[in-house]
Amino acid sequence: MNTIRAVVVDPQVEGRLKIDAVEAPRPALSQALVRVAAVSLNLGEVRAAGRAEAGWRPGWDLSGVVAQAAADGSGPQAGTRVFGMVPSGSWAEVAAVPTALLAEIPDRVTFAQAATLPVAGLTALYGMEKGGFLLGRKVLVTGASGGVGHFACQLARQAGAYVTALVCREERAASLRETGIENVVAGEDAAAAQSSGPFDFIVDTLGGEALAAVTKYLEPDGRCVNLGAATQPDMTLQARLASIPEGVLVLEGMERQTGIAKNLGRLAAMVAEGRLHPPIDRESSWTEIAEVAQSLLNRGIAGKAVLMIS
After folding, report:
1. Contacts with 220 (C-beta within 8 Å, 6 or more apart), sequence order
2. Residues 97-117: pLDDT tens digits?
3. Which of 98, 212, 233, 268 is the most buried (most CB within 10 A)?
4. Quick check: 238 pLDDT over 50?
């Protein structure tokens, strides 16, 4: 297998994304070759594809079957159903995945469900851990209809918190209520959540003015963690960090986290047990990548979009 098919950036085609032949991956000693079954899209990688040079290969999340186990003996064996992530290039037929970023898929979890978990699920998990003991506490999640926000709401509820989910439009509330989140408020600004506060912990995925506004609704000893800047997509990382109000925690990059494979397993186990519900809003063939990516950019997708590789 000298070549495989993968999604690449091509500025000359509509949507800048197409499926093309690329060189097959050559795994390092600690990487497994995974035949990809499904991938999920994240806003960050889709935005990056909009400004990347021709030939760049986007994609972080994936699920599939191990075609070749890692040469160093680490990680799952050939034939195992797995999910995980790579720095880029997961939107492909085959990917070389570090075994430290790979976990097995439980029997009751589908490839599509598993593909939603790595970036969005882990971001939500690590963000919620910043809140400490949440039993009986009041928690606000902004941008709650997005992938990270949706998972954060569910994890906060699992921890015994009283959760308020802030969404931009009322039609985005239904999927959250279906998972047991009762207090969903809709509004283009943070003021919609004011009557439910003050809050012991705020999980913000919006950044910018929304973040500055919600910090006013914290308890005096409350905490706020910022997980992104969905409302300011063109802001540089340095500008984003400079705009964070004093006292707000900022989640470190995924590359600084440890125990990723173990934590992926934790998330998958919750899905298998019916305690965590991946918010899949759209499931399509990867041949529709340009259309689905544009829909995500246009805020036409609530939760996660999954593409099946065939």
Report:
1. none
2. 999 999 999 999 999 999 999
3. 268
4. no
